[in-house]
Amino acid sequence: MPAGRRAAALALLERLEAGAPDRVDANLTDFDSDATEIILGFAFADVVSRPGIDLKTREMLTVAMLASMGTAPGQLDFHMRAAMNTGVSRQEIVEIVYQVAVYAGVPAAMNAMTSAKKAFAEAPE
Amino acid sequence: MPAGRRAAALALLERLEAGAPDRVDANLTDFDSDATEIILGFAFADVVSRPGIDLKTREMLTVAMLASMGTAPGQLDFHMRAAMNTGVSRQEIVEIVYQVAVYAGVPAAMNAMTSAKKAFAEAPE
Amino acid sequence: MPAGRRAAALALLERLEAGAPDRVDANLTDFDSDATEIILGFAFADVVSRPGIDLKTREMLTVAMLASMGTAPGQLDFHMRAAMNTGVSRQEIVEIVYQVAVYAGVPAAMNAMTSAKKAFAEAPE
Amino acid sequence: MPAGRRAAALALLERLEAGAPDRVDANLTDFDSDATEIILGFAFADVVSRPGIDLKTREMLTVAMLASMGTAPGQLDFHMRAAMNTGVSRQEIVEIVYQVAVYAGVPAAMNAMTSAKKAFAEAPE
Amino acid sequence: MPAGRRAAALALLERLEAGAPDRVDANLTDFDSDATEIILGFAFADVVSRPGIDLKTREMLTVAMLASMGTAPGQLDFHMRAAMNTGVSRQEIVEIVYQVAVYAGVPAAMNAMTSAKKAFAEAPE
Amino acid sequence: MPAGRRAAALALLERLEAGAPDRVDANLTDFDSDATEIILGFAFADVVSRPGIDLKTREMLTVAMLASMGTAPGQLDFHMRAAMNTGVSRQEIVEIVYQVAVYAGVPAAMNAMTSAKKAFAEAPE
């Protein structure tokens, strides 16, 4: 059962960025042998892989939350790429950045813009 | 032209909560005669009424941002209702609350849950 | 197995505040039937009931985190009481409040002081 | 020497709001006998009473900081009044609220507006 | 009329840092053709260029807000320089950093100090 | 008496990281001649060196606060090392990181994990 939770978490992560599970799992396990189960099991198996909201919309929500909190730039970079990998268009990311300016202020939006431009540059046209 | 921006902002606000424009406009104008133009003009005319993301999805984003920042409980209450008014379902709000727990922590999700339950109680079945 | 996780979470909650499990479980289940499992299962079964740090010290950490973030005053009130219920002394709470002033600023400490005084007033001498 | 620090802190507080020192000192001392010295000594004797920036401008800075962080509404209410008591005009407060919208977002500005309106209502014309 | 708003925004930006408008405008336009209008139009034309508070005091407020929120270090670096460009003295910046320690905590002040020292090093004596 | 406060602050800092006082004092004094007294005097002489909570537990609290606020990554790196220097074990740091995930969200915990791994790598086995 825990094995199923761990597998479900890594399967979701693969959808966010192809090849990420091995890297992220190794990074977490190197910290503590329970980390993948506890952290990713909660985030991706218990919550993000639930039906009810499609994965593309969930990534839009995640990008908006990370950009408005402004405290995890590395995670924002990852989810900008994940958003594009799950079908969020460049124009939709532009709109999210403007909406961040309204609800979290212009500096938060400027940081999100920088992150978005990195994801745009790495994505195939 | 400014008149158009002001009108566009209030029209968007009416879609978020029927009857809100008069109340909000009076509240802002009582503070300063330029407040509706500057604050709502930016938020609702310049940004939220743009095409590119539908209003329902925008309200999902707004709820997620306000819940994860955790600094504007009154605005969160308003946008929980506005989310339902623009077509967000109870189950979708439940999913957003769980996603807030992942990205902003359990206390932020508990606050969002309290706000959501107030909106559920006020909404027609 | 999920039943065990739910039971473990509620058992931990009982240690934080006698009688809280029924009230909190009802509040969460009224929101969504999965909420106790997802939210409390993660918080209390997966994490806070782990050995490695005793519960008293964990409550000191929780009070410090909630006070420094400053975004969940209701949860801070609960954990001030829970801290005292798990053996944190009034003097230790005073020290945490001063340390919050250093790391999160005087206003965060003033809010924590207000919350602490409510817990002091409710606690038996 | 500590007595001087405590006295300097309370003298500054009297300038922020006439009559506040007794109330605030009692509130702090009821929490811990060292609280006035540690908290107010640092805030008001060590820092805010320094020359280099006049008190009116310092209160403008404090209002802007508290409004943009958004985590201490009670302190924001106090410093809105203190700002007016030290010479900040209504129009200057209006300008600060707009600037908060730019740097911390519209919800932070709306909260600041509510706080400002309370201070305006209590102040003599 | 939009052209006037855009021009007003860039004129204000030139006062903050000579030569910045071309660089910032290119950066924003590369993201989206509306970005300069929406983001800078709001920030600099609608708000910061308003009379009622002089530009030097506005930059003091901006530095205090960015330092206390702590989520936009790049923008803080920019506005430390802009503060000096609009007449804020080194001693006034020192005072702001101390006041940040009071209202947002010592780590926020230490980050602001690092940013201030970079601006001091780049400024002509 | 001020000399005593300064000395007490630097003595506490030496316990957090051997050799840090000279470096930190020089960094602060280069900014302003009063900075060590005002900033470190408050943080380390007035608060952290108080009895009532042992230094090891205080560093656990500091790590938890900095990780949950997420706005001072450099200070978090320092206090991860200081925690280990004052007797916090690797397993205890692992537990704090998991508890940060509960109260401040997974991204805050991931940032804390990165910081912890740097401290682990630098510490003698």
TrEMBL record, chains A, B, C, D, E, F:
A Pfam family per the record: CMD
Domain Carboxymuconolactone decarboxylase-like per the UniProt entry, residue ranges: 35-117
Recorded superkingdom: Bacteria
Gene3D superfamilies xref list: AhpD-like
GO MF, one annotated term: peroxiredoxin activity
Name of this chain's protein: Carboxymuconolactone decarboxylase
Organism taxonomic ancestry: Bacteria, Pseudomonadati, Pseudomonadota, Alphaproteobacteria, Rhodobacterales
